Amino acid sequence: MTDPSDRSPAKARTLISVDAMGGDQGPAAVVAGMVKSAKINPDIAFILHGPRSELAPLVERQPTLADRVTIHDAEGVVTMDDKPSQVVRQGKGTSMYSAIEAVRSGEASVAVSCGNTGALMALSMIRLRKMPGVNRPAIAVLYPSSNAQGFNVLLDVGADIRADADDLLRFALMGKSYARNGLGVDHPRIGLLNVGTEEHKGRTELKEAHDLIRDHAADAGFDFVGFVEGGDISGDRADVIVTDGFTGNIAIKTGEGTASLIGIRLREAFKYSILSRLASVLAYTSLMRLRRKIDPRRVNGGVFLGLNGTVVKSHGSADATGVSAAIKLAAQLADNGFNDKLAARVAATLPAQQENDT
Amino acid sequence: MTDPSDRSPAKARTLISVDAMGGDQGPAAVVAGMVKSAKINPDIAFILHGPRSELAPLVERQPTLADRVTIHDAEGVVTMDDKPSQVVRQGKGTSMYSAIEAVRSGEASVAVSCGNTGALMALSMIRLRKMPGVNRPAIAVLYPSSNAQGFNVLLDVGADIRADADDLLRFALMGKSYARNGLGVDHPRIGLLNVGTEEHKGRTELKEAHDLIRDHAADAGFDFVGFVEGGDISGDRADVIVTDGFTGNIAIKTGEGTASLIGIRLREAFKYSILSRLASVLAYTSLMRLRRKIDPRRVNGGVFLGLNGTVVKSHGSADATGVSAAIKLAAQLADNGFNDKLAARVAATLPAQQENDT
């Protein structure tokens, strides 16, 4: 599918596979995000997937991208309404499929897509396959928090709606690797999400997972702080919060919705009177500073963990800033050889079942 | 336990049973909240539960409360650390037990407590018992939202960690009654919390519950909007959000934590420079206006639904404003004969099992 007339990326650069299609803002926003990233980071280059006729003119217009983009022609587009099962059956030839394929073949270290999350997860599962020792992959996000880094890792936020005790232990290991390679926290504090911090509370699988994670903490190089509550997702009790994909998905969407409601109310409050309008002008830089700190675009990107290859899911509505943040994260994980380290860590921790047998 | 020397409340007033103890701020904050409420609402009076020696001086100091408070002497206090099971066995003689008892005996229409939620639920279950037709009671809260009333009803937020399809149907009926009597929404829109809005998504019991609630909507007088997501808890797609107590508890705590982090960041942003400090002075009234709109103290009070009697759980850290908001809600529910109407509604809706049998 590669056209020999394409510019070849420089050899030493980290190659990132980018799905140009499927985001709400179209390929122009994706290319703009690549430009932003390429300007900041001279060590990255891209394989861009989508209809060549549409992408080539967008790329050629950007001097920053000269010699740093290979286009893989793919005519098909996965839309937000496509069902994952359909995409698995008929997705070959789409830009999403092609973007994952470049990771599977080893051409690129990591893939980035703004497309349909369910379809991206399903295709990634089928093509990249699960890492040995992992039964359920997970999607991890960075959630704004009051800890030193300013963010906690939360997983799973929706790869699967279920997780048993063994899966939750794997999530802890994956979260630990992600906190180390994505946030630079060497010895993260890990908490298990529950409705109370007392050990007798919560569902049976959570009590089981509690003991399993506790018993592996020392060997795996993290602190287990036990059960944590919803409020700790944005707090400083843990750096990594482990939960099943149903609960995690509800939690981040509740948090995002609440933050957005506060934003609306804040704007209303400042529009109320002439004095408050004046205050809002003076407060502008303060409010922009706040926005930078809690702007979801700046930590844009859920990471699929537990597959043979790293896939970064950017928000569907991501603009250039959002895409650039996702690319930054992808480059960071690729540079750190994140997935190999994660695989080694998971392999080093036998499933509970096997351990009990030995 | 009543001392005949106590002032008798006026006959026509709505009697509210108030647990003076167990909150973080002690009985003085509770009495201050009663004063606030009594000033605004001339039609309420109180039975106050706790150590008479401590409470009588606090009450006597308040002219507003003259002839409006009966003290029920109870020496014991349920603390935040007491386990619910302990309190059920040994709780007799505590102010919490006494407060619930006044509702059980019919003296008061509704009880208010700032104490230990788990213990309050367990004692309420044992003493008031479940309403006929209800298998699991629920705790409902008002969550700030962008709908016309400014709040959605969310339940269950932690009475139980489980809920099957039949329970979720009961939650919908309870939520409907609460939206009507607590928020004044006659024909509320009800949504079922899930990880996506497509009908094929989510756990099996949710798909079952989806169809069950849909089939009862017309008769029960609500609109069923189907599955909703975490972001809709603060949104305008539904007025009532139904979920199990595990998910609901994580959701509200995540939302509260996120709101509190934004508050911290907002204060930091305004302290950053001299100009931003000046802006914060000018913005003061705007920020206070915002705070009033999203202040959790102003909608303080989870309501226990599905018992033979109404219990309002005020936040453990509630101050006078918080206690007063909980009392206001209690008075509103008592005046509307809320619990009788709810019982009639639940009784009118046969459990799915029985329906299938007929």
Automatic annotation (TrEMBL), chains A, B:
Look up the EC number in the record and give it: 2.3.1.274
Any one cellular component term from GO for this entry?
cytoplasm
List the pathway annotation.
Lipid metabolism; phospholipid metabolism
UniProt enzyme class: transferase
Q: Which keywords has UniProt assigned to this entry?
A: Acyltransferase, Cytoplasm, Lipid biosynthesis, Lipid metabolism, Phospholipid biosynthesis, Phospholipid metabolism, Transferase
A GO molecular function assigned to this protein is: phosphate:acyl-[acyl carrier protein] acyltransferase activity
The keyword Transmembrane appears for this protein: no
Catalyses which reaction(s): a fatty acyl-[ACP] + phosphate = an acyl phosphate + holo-[ACP]
**Biological process (GO), any one:** phospholipid biosynthetic process
Location in or out of the cell: Cytoplasm
**InterPro entries named in the record:** FA_synthesis, Phospholipid_synth_PlsX-like
Q: How does it assemble?
A: Homodimer. Probably interacts with PlsY.
Name the family: Belongs to the PlsX family.
Q: What is this protein called?
A: Phosphate acyltransferase
Q: Which organism is it from?
A: Sulfitobacter albidus
